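[Amino acid chain]
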Amino acid sequence: MSLISNQSRKFPHWRKDFTASLVVFLVALPLCVGVAVASGVPAELGLITGIVGGLITGFLPGSSLQVSGPAAGLTVLVFGAVDEYGLPALGVIVLATGLIQLAMGALKLGRWFRAISLSVVEGMLAGIGLVLIAGQLYSAAGLEAPASGIDKIIGLPGAAADAVGSTEALTSLALGAGTVAVMVLWKRLPKAAQTLPGALAAVVLATAVTAAFGLSVATVEVNGLLDSIQPPGADAFGQLASVGLLGTIVAFTLIASAESLFSAAAVDRLHTGPRTEYNKELMAQGAGNTVCGVLGALPMTAVIVRSSANVSAGARTKASRVLHGVWLLLFAALLPSALALIPLPALAGILVHAGWKLIPFKGVVALWRGHRGEALILVVTAVSIVAVNMFEGVLIGLALSVVKTAWEASHLKLEIVDKGAGPVQVHLTGNATFLRLPKILESLEALPQDRPVELDLSGLHHLDHACRTALENWAERHSSAGTDPVKVTEPEKAPAAKAPV
């Protein structure tokens, strides 16, 4: 009795953290396996990333309650990287990603990821969700999916026709659809039943149905935990000379870091405990990805599904996420053969459900009503990812976001006062940047050539070099027509700061 009381004094939240760790383990297990299979790598590599997320990242400071592991948001990017550069190169990519994250955290750049437009991030997730859903529909039917995102979507009608003509494909598809149905309906059950996570319940039921009826569907291939660990060799590091591989590393770094830090902000809103230290959290993610890279495993991010489950289960300290890593390690070490029983259509169903949740349907409608420019950025980013690829799609979204911000910052008012006699007065107020230059020159060039002009720039807060040069050139041309020289009133300069006495 005294032992229990002493333990309670040293670890006052151990009961809640222990219970929460079991819940997070049950949520993480099918997702780790499903993300790995969808990424085109051995299922054990997903478990390894989950273990590292618990035992390494879970110990480090940053955000005490969010849980890290393989994420559905990186599935499309990982599959493309493995398909193009091979599985050994994955370790190099993840290792480089981790080292860059460590460097960015050390340089205190973590907070800058919070400055990324939310519309770009949501568009990125929506694009990933669309490609993920399309790809997993093929897997659910036991068919081979095309390589590119746009081909996956365009090829769906043909895949549906092929599935209708195959009993095995229809059986596989029905099992995947049943998995999705269980996950959707699970939330409507009494809370006592929801103690078991919906994803795990769906996988267990699908596995039981497959075994009971002897269904002819594909199941997870098991290689063994140690056999799946493949540290990158010299040949893999040699691929760093490839510009494409370097671009993939940048994409991994950008997406993994942004997703982790946005997840941290979301998790902070779910509890009243210590707030996230963003630079430390970025370094924690970097340490985890560095280890995953050395082991040749999947990249990790903080995952909002596992993190919210951790908070909802009553976790109070980082002990819960560390313990969830322990449970994943024990499962992988003691029960690896259990993976071979899991039908692939069930995992495809889980990822279709996960992909659907990545698409912010309500958010798009709300943005369109209040901020149509942001809604456009979200949609363009998502469509670009589907039509081109992940990296270039995100860059397009970021570029569009920067242009929109610059345009909105260039508020300019141009007023022309013509009293019929005397000089024409032109007043410019606001911010004159190159983005507003066409409007300015169009108005000035429409002024009468035979009248003197007074150009008042005193109301400008900002006049960039492009605008100043264009205005000087226009004034010179206007004055050369035999009229009086254009009289220019320069912008007011801010008063110089007084030296301290």
